[in-house]
């Protein structure tokens, strides 16, 4: 009997609910080459960690290799080089020692101490957002909570006008579009034009902070260099902002939406959490493990390589599939069970692993913790307020954004 074929990741229904495909890959072909584009998808926990800790073999910066540039991405690059700033390769798109340099400079401006100082403000925003819908007895959780919380926070951190967060969301969508789906030339140019708007807006903000620094992240980035170092160029600043806006926004929105949806789907787990708040941290880790907001990211093989028992030719594209690794039965017992008391839930690699481990993980964790604390303090009797779309997530190769999540609830007596 031949093994059943792995379903196609180009099918929106599979990206939406990929867990059966992960199970099949774990059992049959833990390193699976997608027939549509030859990408090698790595799905086992140990293999993903191995790839992530070997940047010499699996590079985040394929510059100098055969360029895998499609007609669509060439058309988008032309928009930036002619009327904006062409892509520099910073931070996430670099390997050591260049990566180490960016990471060190970013470490100066992104500290855990700053996140702790931010906690009262995160609490205030959570309560303001809940105030906005509590009397109605229902909300569209993505639009009314999961989007605005990280949107307002990242805008305020950067020093941008937080009332404009829906515009930043449009920009973040355009910035992420090339990584989410295959686009036509027209679609790529359309998205590049939107990102161009962001580039020019941000350039003005950088210039203003160069002249007159304020107490915000943009000023810190503009002035991050030491006395004997060159300041970041405009291309570098644009690329760093690209990573902070996209990294700080959609990932946390996804995690908040998924966390809420899991509580609706597993009322027994919700009841446990309501009865024992000390489980909150583990609930957050288990949500990140069970349905990881960043499903996968890319590396490029710099030489002939081998992962598990699969040979990977030089210059191949490799996807580290964090979401599949977090369901690996060799690492997590009964991986498809959502269990907020799971002992090793925090071993998940939803924030990555190795040198590129998420810069914003402390901020994301603080947002998730305070968000669910506030929700559980003020709301009760949660249920879905309407049917979800047949395919509840937007199509994406990388993230798992929920389209919407209508929730009904009662207010808790204070
Ligand atoms: C639940 C929320 C989040 C998840 C699941 C997440 C996930 C990840 C993952 C998997 C990586 C590794 C990238 C790689 O290996 O190439 C990463 C890196 C990164 N994240 Fe996050 N992230 C989240 C929130 C944030 C936030 C709030 C920010 C910023 C404010 C942020 C900024 C970044 C940046 C700049 C990097 C690149 C770090 C480097 O290359 O050294 N992330 N994140």
Characterise this structure.
With 414 residues, this protein is α+β, with helices and mostly antiparallel strands. The chain folds into two domains: 43 residues, no CATH class; 264 residues, Cytochrome P450 (Cytochrome p450, Orthogonal Bundle). It has 16 helices and ten strands. The strands form three sheets. The chain has a five-stranded mixed β-sheet with strand order 1-2-8-5-3. A hairpin with a 2-residue loop joins strand 6 and strand 7. The chain is globular, with a radius of gyration of 21 Å. The N and C termini lie far apart (62 Å). The relative contact order is 0.17. The model has no long low-confidence stretch (mean pLDDT 92). The site of protoporphyrin IX containing FE has 25 residues, from helix 12 and helix 16.
Radius of gyration: 21 Å
CATH superfamily of the largest domain: Cytochrome P450
Class of secondary structure makeup: alpha+beta
Number of domains: 2
The biggest sheet, with number of strands, parallel, antiparallel or mixed sense and barrel status, is: 5 strands, mixed
How helix-rich are the residues, as a percent range? 40-55%
Report the total helices: 16
CATH architecture of the largest domain: Orthogonal Bundle
Count all strands and give the number. Answer: 10
Helix-strand pattern: HHEEHEHHHEHHHHHHHHEEEEHHEE
Q: What would the CATH topology of the largest domain be?
A: Cytochrome p450
Which small molecules are bound? protoporphyrin IX containing FE
Which shape, going by the Cα principal axes? Answer: globular
- How far is the first residue's CA from the last residue's CA? 62 Å
CATH class of the largest domain: Mainly Alpha
Tell me the fraction of residues in β-strands, as a range.
Answer: 5-15%
Mean pLDDT over the full residue set = 92
Side by side, the strands of the main sheet go 1-2-8-5-3
Low-confidence stretches: none
